[in-house]
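This part of the workshop introduces the protein records we will be handling. A record pairs a protein's sequence with a compact description of its fold. Comparing a sequence with its tokens is the quickest way to learn the format. The record below serves as our worked example for the rest of this section:
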Amino acid sequence: VGSCEASESRDRRRRVAWVFAFGSLMVDAVLGRYRARPARLPDYRRAFLHESRRRWGTPESPCPILGLAPGGECWGLAFEVPDAERRAVQSALEKREAAQERRRETRTTETPEGPVDAWVWVSWPSNGSGEADVETVEARLRAAHGVVGTGIEYVRTLVHAMEPHGIRDPLVEGLWKRLQD
């Protein structure tokens, strides 16, 4: 019975598309209806590498938003998307994830049920060189206000997306503590 269950689990993992989310995508409506579980992406970490000029900020006061930079590890959520919905989800996410700033790759993520190959939007290398210090990021988050909310609300969204799953990130938690002071 044990090997039969393992085989069924492997077959199910192949009949779906997996999406790894590490930032506000963890609570995005596109993925909200799909089953999610905590997942670890090795060799990448969260970093404030991008700017939101509409959703969380404006052209005059862009909001720093997360991207993936090489090094370390990143805990997030792996969403299980049925194969029949793969194209629609892919199209929606490619629009949202700013193709000019990120590239979609397939990377192995580790879940409690075993490894899965998931779509991951990785920041282009040119975005990784401009990481700002925490004081600069904090000031920019405090100044940002877009159509979805403020920079402070962006970080709160991240914290609230991670907490129920036991996901911890020193960068996000440190900024959240500073923004609450």
Q: What stands out?
A: The two ends are 55 Å apart (CA to CA). The chain has a mean pLDDT of 87. Helices lie at 2-14, 86-96, 125-128, 134-143, 151-162, 170-180. Residues 2-14 form the longest helix (13 residues).
